[in-house]
Design a protein that fits this description.
The complex is a heterodimer of chains A (778) and B (491). Chain A is α+β, with helices and mostly antiparallel strands. The chains are: A alpha+beta (778), B alpha+beta (491).
């Protein structure tokens, strides 16, 4: 036995600023995305044919020109589906792979062309002749309500206290409404699936999916085979943001259908415009609200309805609209409250998950109410915020009856207010606006509280598979998917930390349903919480066996066996990790384990609107200052300060990247990203030429992002960290509100400008004009 | 004229020379790299030149000087690359060897998340580094206007860009150190021949000279002339249009020349926005912002002023600005050239004053009178790399009494063509430059235009902002108070 000196610490353990595990491959172009995988000889390509009507009966389809186009092998329609023509994740049977009889939105897939090249398939698909009979269509959420369109799923109501008594008691009542636009994910890598047929009923797919298990299930359902015949692999996605939680399923199903039918490998990848037309987005909302409050601005009662443009099917609209309600309170205690969702059907693409999952829309609505109260009382909105924060006797119960136990928003706000010099800068902004007639400034400081856990309780479970090979190298696999967020890096850090080995000893392999079954979507910010725990559990199982083995072999107590940096200490002696593993293998110790985790404490009764849907909350706050040109509505984000709570971060530098990225993405949602449908129900902003996500030059001119380093998750999460994917997405609500303040300045801050989102230069200028008219009319 | 014909194109691809004789007119560089050459480091994000995931560098010779520029491989036709050096991300680092300084900087600063846009950013930053080893933040942002990242929020990428020069030594970069050798290889590819390849829908030509171009186009007036392909590229990638026969002109040095005389500047039709920028900035500082906001860097490297005019778009960036300057276009058919004022070149939506077989050979911009006031404002949803909702250009000249003697106002985005505001101009001419005059002219704009509502802006906003831009123009000539956003450099 070699005796070694202890090394202080391993390289790449938890809480370290470790690089993204694929960074060097990203920069060299060697990170393999699905379209980069070398195709087997004879690979065919599928291309979707999309509806050119928003709502119509299909009277006839003529495929002659399609089939006779060069390179075409065949056409797939619903008739070619051996299983079910449905990929509804809500199991509502309302999400056909291919429309039959009727189309319900412009861009709905009707058929697929299979050809020798993608170009041939795409060109052929455009040659179809479809005879439609138009039906009345509705794209807008309020028009849908007016037209008595149905709800795509049961709505939710959250109620607490006595709403009538609350309003009766309130000295002041205001009512308002707001429209909040949707958002396209604009993942840089579009949807893609690549299917390779196997023996019997087997099929293997490479799919850019956040939810391999569901993709597996859906492919099985469409092919009419059991899940054990379908394997889904995904090494990485080129961005997802929720857009590949359910939306990847249809593409996988089509590739699988074609692969089975033609007994060839088949790849499907839509053009960006078709991707944006045919796949779901963030839900647009209309919020109608009524707030009762006292003269100080303390809220007494809130009654609000959140209506969402869900599109033609349910998809995830149920949980998305639920989460909007769960976040309409943000950090504020509403003594009497009633929140209702209206998940409305529309003749648009079925909206889906997107970072925040309805939470951002709920929170924007809640913050608009605060803003309205502040302008009504002539106060700084931050003052109203602080007055209404959760905290104090009897003021910790959410509208869904979960008690807020881990509230740190007070400290976050206090620290940020000081570090960004909020009070003095607000005074300076007010002074500037008194002098400057055309350029106006605004400043706002807004909080975030975001609930962590899937509200569908069964999703809060995860698996991992860890092998320690006889040479001491470690193979890690888990159910989470890598979409850029650094999940593979973080979970590997956890495993390195468990075994106390350097990170480079661990290889994370592509997520596959063949290794870890029944996984949940990598979504709801839960990736490292769930998979980190499952991987730790797997490592701990192996370690426990190794401890028992070592104690017996070297005749020491189990307490005397310890995993120290790159060594195992047995009694007073230290053995190099690989040497130790070699001995263990020789002694026939099982060096592989399947880990498992389920989130404790959570429960949710949707029918009653009660429970503890969230294991914990993540917090944050941001202060934004903007300049607005009141002649054009153009604006610039001059400065942003962020303080964000990632608990005891697993990897602070990756978490900073999540916060910075989420901020800019959220800012895009609230400013320049506009979905625009024409009178025929066609989405006309369906490519980067027309749909404008932020550029480098849009990021705040000063951008200070910090993590609350003192924060430690009070719940037993993986190394006391907190989820970080979604919560910072809502930080840029301060940008919207700062723009609002600049607009309000033209009417002496007496009126809440109520600029809808996204606050494009047009909406800002028209808002300013409203303010000017209101000021003139006294 | 006897022209020798070659039936292949030749270029350098990374470290190798490539000769292609079987290549279609509509073959894009991106598909060629990914599908034909299996170089899959370069990604497709949008196939319309807006996201930059497909960015590669193209080295082009002009008068013996070799310059590498970022371009969008997705909308660049392979046929246009005769005599060029194409550099892709795949070639920057030897497998297992050290990373290129740009790559190392990106890794060190955690500037990639999903990684799909990353190769494009690497190439854009590489192009910037070669031209400008220590760029300011504003210069970095300008170089990255054509690169979208959805994950990082760009902060880390900016940190990477600033770190490149700390990590690397530009003189040791292969494209710098071996420049002379590469120039020699590229010079050797020039043989002065016309290139003609393919039949029917695949056919394209590279004229041997401008005279040859004139001859070809006169003989085949239905041919499609392609300069930067920043618009025509989309006809292929988005609309799957048949554009053959294609006649490229980006390889013609004669069309890339710029002549300055006492009265103005003449830009050859093949001069790119990037190539024109130094002289534009020198003589027309009022155009700096507009020029910097045309497309992204890749589009400015490819796109030409001539193309921007020839395609006749009502929302092209340069026409309103150039109309207000009194620019003219030189049109050529066969051996005959004629000059027409730019404003009358645009007849109506989709129709220009261009005869069959006639092409835009040059654009002539006269210098401003000393006492003229001139400004151009572009209004977009997003600051950079966005198409105008409205673009307003204003030029006023004054007589000795201070009265407005001439007024030229042109707007883009307000009508089916870039169009002058006759009523507003009339309200200004002969009047004093006062607020009352301006308000009268603003009101008159309502008679000049009936704009449309679309996804870029509503009719109401377009008219309101068009009017307010005139007010901005006035206010900018008065007093010191800032009347437009001070585009601050980020820190």
């Amino acid at each position: 036995m070699n005796v070694m000196q202890p090394i202080n610490r391993i390289r790449g353990g938890v809480h370290e600023n470790e690089r993204h595990e694929s960074g060097h491959k990203h920069v060299t172009g060697t990170a393999e995305y699905i379209d980069d995988i070398p195709e087997p000889a004879g690979t065919l390509h599928a291309y979707l044919g999309l509806s050119q009507r928003a709502h119509a009966q299909i009277l006839s389809i003529d495929f002659d020109a399609v089939k006779s186009a060069p390179g075409v092998i065949g056409v797939l329609t619903a008739d070619d589906i051996p299983g079910e023509n449905d990929v509804s994740p809500a199991h509502k049977h309302d999400d056909p792979v291919f429309a039959t009889g009727k189309v319900e939105f412009h861009g709905q897939p009707i058929f697929a062309v299979i050809a020798e090249t993608r170009d041939a398939a795409r060109r052929a698909a455009a040659k179809v002749k479809i005879e439609y009979q138009d039906l009345p269509h509705v794209t807008d959420v309020l028009e849908a309500a007016a037209a008595n369109y149905p709800l795509v799923i049961d709505p939710l109501k959250l109620e607490r206290g006595d709403i009538a008594a609350g309003f009766a008691k309130a000295k002041n009542i205001l009512e308002g409404e707001m429209r909040i636009g949707g958002q396209d994910h604009f993942y840089l890598e579009g949807q893609i699936s690549f299917a390779i047929p196997g023996e019997d009923d087997e099929i293997t797919l490479y799919s850019s999916t956040q939810h391999p298990s569901e993709t597996q299930h859906m492919v099985g359902q469409v092919l009419g085979v059991a899940s054990n015949a379908v394997t889904i692999n995904v090494r990485r996605m080129g961005g997802a943001f929720g857009g590949k939680e359910t939306q990847a399923n249809l593409f996988a199903a089509v590739a699988a259908l074609a692969a089975k039918k033609y007994r060839c490998a088949v790849k499907i990848r839509p053009d960006r415009d078709d991707d944006m037309s045919a796949t779901g987005k963030r839900h647009d909302f209309h919020v109608g609200y009524k707030v009762g409050y006292d003269d100080d601005g303390r809220i007494e009662a809130v009654d609000a309805t959140f209506s969402a443009r869900c599109g033609f099917s349910a998809d995830l609209s149920g949980p998305v609209t639920d989460r909007a309600l769960f976040h309409a309170d943000n950090c504020y205690f509403y003594p009497h409250v009633r929140l209702r969702s209206r998940p409305l059907k529309t003749n648009t693409v079925s909206n889906t998950a997107f970072r925040g999952f309805g939470g951002p829309q709920g929170m924007v609505g809640g913050e608009r109410m605060i803003e309205d109260v502040a302008y009504a009382l002539g106060k700084d909105p931050l003052e109203i915020r602080k007055l209404n924060f959760y905290g104090g006797e009897g003021r910790n119960l959410t509208p869904y009856h979960q008690t807020v136990e881990d509230n740190i928003i007070g400290r976050i706000i206090e620290e940020l207010e000081t570090s960004c010099d909020y009070a003095a800068r607000r005074e300076a902004v007010l002074a500037f606006n008194r002098k400057s007639s055309i350029i106006k400034r605004g400043i706002a400081l807004t909080p975030v509280k975001f609930g962590i856990s899937f509200t569908k309780t069964e999703y809060n479970q995860a698996g991992a598979l860890v092998h320690v090979y006889a040479d001491g190298s470690i193979h890690l696999n888990h159910g989470g998917t890598e979409m850029g967020q650094g999940l593979y890096t973080k979970v590997a850090q956890v495993v390195a930390d468990e075994f106390q080995v350097d990170l480079d000893r661990i290889k994370v392999t592509a997520t596959t349903t063949g290794k870890v079954p029944n996984t949940s979507a990598t979504a709801a910010s839960s990736g490292s919480d769930l998979n980190g725990m499952a991987a730790a559990n797997a490592a701990q199982q192996i370690k426990a066996r190794l401890v028992t083995f070592a104690a017996e072999r070297w005749n020491v107590s189990e307490a005397d066996v310890a995993f120290e940096p790159n060594t195992v200490r047995v009694g007073a002696e230290r053995i190099a990790f690989s040497e130790f593993i070699k001995i263990a293998y020789g002694s026939r110790i099982q060096l592989s384990a399947a880990g498992f985790y389920k989130t404790p404490k959570i429960h949710w009764n949707r029918a009653e609107g009660r429970g503890r849907p969230f294991f914990y909350y993540a917090y944050g706050a941001s202060c934004s200052e903007v300049s607005v040109d009141t002649l054009t509505g153009e604006y610039q984000v001059d400065r942003v300060d962020v303080l964000h709570d990632a608990g005891k971060s697993l990897n602070p530098i990756l978490d900073i990247g999540q916060v910075e990225g989420a901020f800019v993405q959220g800012m895009g949602w609230l400013t320049t990203e506009e979905l625009w449908w024409d009178g025929k129900g066609r989405l006309r902003t369906h490519a980067p030429s027309t749909y404008k996500i932020p550029l480098a030059s849009d990021r705040p001119r000063i951008f200070n992002v910090k993590l609350a380093e003192w924060s430690v998750n009070r719940e037993e999460t993986i190394r006391r960290s907190k989820a970080v994917g979604e919560p910072p997405f809502m930080l840029p609500i301060s940008v919207l509100e700062a723009i609002s303040m600049a607009a309000a300045s033209v009417a002496e801050y007496r009126i809440s400008p109520r600029i809808d989102a996204p606050a494009t230069p047009e909406r800002v200028l028209l808002g300013i004009e409203r303010m000017r008219r209101a000021a003139r009319n006294g | 004229m006897t022209v020798q014909i070659r039936s292949s194109i030749r270029f350098l691809l990374n470290h190798r020379q490539v000769e292609l004789s079987a290549v279609s007119a509509v073959q894009t560089l991106l598909d060629f790299l990914r599908l034909d050459r299996n170089l899959r480091g370069t990604k497709e994000g949008c196939a319309e030149g807006d996201c930059g995931a497909c960015t590669v560098l193209v080295g082009r010779l002009l008068d013996g000087r070799l310059k590498y520029e970022s371009v969008n491989a997705c909308i660049r036709f392979v046929g246009s690359l005769d005599g060029c050096h194409i550099v892709t991300v795949d070639s920057l680092a030897v497998p297992g060897g050290p990373l290129h300084p740009v790559q190392q900087a990106m890794v060190d600063t955690h500037a990639s998340q999903c990684g799909f846009c990353t190769p494009g950013f690497v190439m854009s930053l590489y192009g910037l580094w070669m031209e400008n080893p220590k760029p300011s933040v504003a210069e970095i942002e300008k170089a990255l206007q054509g690169n979208l990242c959805r994950c990082t929020g760009y902060a880390a990428i900016l940190r990477a860009a600033e770190a490149v020069s700390v990590i690397g030594d530009l003189d040791r970069d292969p494209l710098v150190a071996e420049r002379a050798k590469i120039v020699e290889k590229l010079e050797a590819l020039k043989d002065g021949k016309r290139v003609e390849i393919g039949e029917g829908s695949e056919r394209f030509l590279l004229p041997a000279s401008v005279d040859d171009l004139a001859e070809i186009y006169e003989a085949e007036p239905k041919a499609r002339i392609v300069a930067g392909s920043t618009d025509v590229g989309l006809w292929v990638t988005k609309f799957m249009r048949d554009i053959a026969p294609v006649v490229h002109l980006s390889h013609l040095d004669e069309l890339r020349r710029i002549a300055v005389d006492e009265a103005g500047i003449t830009f050859g039709a093949g001069v790119s926005y990037t190539e024109s920028f130094p002289l534009i900035a020198k003589h027309f500082p009022q155009l700096i912002e507009l020029w910097n906001r045309i497309g992204g860097q890749q589009v400015r490297n490819m796109g030409t002023i001539g193309g921007n005019i020839a395609n006749g778009s009502p929302i092209g960036d340069t026409p309103p600005a150039l109309i207000a300057l009194g620019a003219s276009v030189v049109l050529r058919k066969g051996k005959i050239s004629r000059s027409v004022p730019l404003e009358s070149f645009f007849i109506e939506y989709g129709k220009q004053d261009r005869q069959p077989g006639e092409f835009v050979e040059a654009v002539r911009i006269p210098f401003l009178n000393e006492n003229a006031l001139y400004a151009v404002y572009k209004i977009t949803k997003r600051l950079d790399e966005d198409i105008s909702a409205v673009c307003g250009a204003f030029r006023l000249t004054f007589d000795e009494n201070g009265e407005i003697s001439d007024a030229v106002i042109a707007y883009g985005g307000m009508a089916g063509t870039p169009k002058r505001a006759d009523n507003a101009e009339a309200a200004l001419i002969g009047a004093d430059w006062t607020e009352a005059t301006v308000e009268a002219a603003m009101a008159a704009l309502g008679k000049d235009y009936t704009p449309l509502t679309d996804w870029r802006a509503s009719a109401d906003y377009r008219l309101l902002v068009a009017q307010n831009l005139l007010r901005r123009f006035y206010l900018e000539t008065q007093g010191d108070e800032p009347v437009r956003l001070d585009r601050k450099q980020a820190v």
